[in-house]
Write a structure and sequence with these properties.
The chain has about 375 residues and is mainly alpha-helical. The protein contains 15 helices and five strands.
Length: about 375
């Protein structure tokens, strides 16, 4: 099918409303627009550079976790949660009671991402994997009673307060399983010659149009992107997440999706998506470069500690995974005594690697600011 002649679907009359029934996507795709070729080249180049950094950076898994936290916080913010990235790194007892629901949603997303990536080692990208991930996402939070882990069996809608004033009504629930089966086949169809980034652009649009779950579709749809890239070997590590790009361009993001459904303009959506991949991959590459510079600088500071340097290096390995800590986190994480943990904190404060954030005498919290700041820009 050519992008230029693409028909997105049809409006089907239901009882007192019309649902949008999208066109199947599991087939060949072609296009004439030269801008797509240029954007595809740019996106692939940036993605390759990002992947190269994820292969050469020592102990890369120390830093991937912060990418996951950043994604969880940003993707959840698109859905209305108000948890900051620093709060997402805190244990629940340090979160104000009125903010704990939002905090749990972000933490669920972190757990869901980590579990889904781990599952890819034995289970290919599939509807089964998405349903498992959705169950984790909805566990014990708002939406926990909306069929977690299962495709919906009732009609949902986007925008508005009901079907009567909805901005968009996805396909009828009777067809969800078939639409999602077609989408899954598209991910793995080796008989068609469609570049991976084009497939995932189309797949994200199609997933959000089907809206297969009663809740959590935005987060699962955005997570679909890194799962596809890792599952198909385009990335060795889950280091690219588009939620930051979508959140910064939120109106354009939603408009581009709706433009496909209303005006059949798939070209505009694909260009927008590829631009997002190129920008996000380039930004991720730069963060890895800054991490390498930071590690060198931090190592030089640690050398000044003399015989206490080995403990400080071990503490830093923990801080790269968990850049917001309390002294007892170091005590448990390193298996050292309480006096040793507190001495470590004082050393790292003196080296300007840790900053105390609470201003309290007890239950003090420290941030590894030079590292955390790399993910706040």
């Amino acid at each position: 099918m050519k992008f230029e002649t693409f028909q997105a679907g049809r409006w089907q009359q239901r009882y007192q409303y019309q649902s949008f029934e999208p066109t199947w996507v599991n087939h060949d795709w072609t296009w004439e627009d030269p801008r797509i070729h240029l954007l595809l080249e740019s996106a692939n180049r940036a993605l390759g550079e990002l992947n190269a950094f994820s292969l050469i950076v020592p102990d890369i898994d120390l830093f991937i976790q912060m990418h996951v936290v950043k994604e969880a916080q940003t993707s959840s913010r698109i859905e209305g949660t108000q948890t900051g990235i620093d709060e997402a790194l805190l244990p629940e007892e340090h979160i104000r009671p009125e903010k704990r629901d939002d905090w749990r949603e972000v933490r669920n997303y972190i757990d869901a991402v980590n579990a889904a990536i781990a599952e890819l080692a034995t289970l290919p990208l599939s509807n089964r994997l998405l349903r498992q991930t959705h169950a984790l996402l909805m566990r014990g939070v708002r939406g926990e009673h909306k069929q977690p882990g299962d495709f919906r069996t009732s009609q949902n809608w986007i925008g508005g307060s009901s079907l009567a004033d909805a901005a968009f009504i996805p396909p009828h629930h009777d067809g969800v399983a078939e639409y999602m089966s077609d989408l899954e086949q598209f991910w793995h169809n080796e008989q068609i010659t469609v570049p991976h980034l084009i497939r995932i652009a189309i797949s994200h649009y199609q997933f959000e149009t089907i809206h297969p779950f009663l809740d959590g579709n935005g987060r699962i749809g955005r997570l679909l992107v890194p799962l596809y890239l890792v599952g198909h070997g385009l990335l060795a590590k889950p280091s690219l997440y588009l939620s930051d790009f979508f959140e910064r361009n939120r109106t354009s993001y939603y408009d581009a999706l709706m433009r496909v459904r209303i005006a059949n303009d798939l070209i505009h959506w694909v260009r927008f998506f590829l631009q997002g991949v190129a920008e996000t991959a380039a930004k991720g590459r730069d963060v890895f470069r800054q991490i390498l510079v930071l590690r060198t600088d931090v190592e030089q500071r640690i050398l000044t500690l003399g015989k206490r340097a080995p403990n400080a290096r071990a503490a830093l390995d923990l801080l790269y995974r968990q850049p917001v800590i309390a002294a007892n986190d170091l005590e448990r994480g390193l298996g050292v005594s309480k006096p040793t943990a507190h001495a470590l904190v004082r050393d790292l404060e003196r080296l300007k690697l840790l900053t105390e954030t609470t201003g309290q005498m007890r239950d003090r919290i420290y941030m590894f600011d030079p590292y955390l700041n790399l993910f706040l820009s």
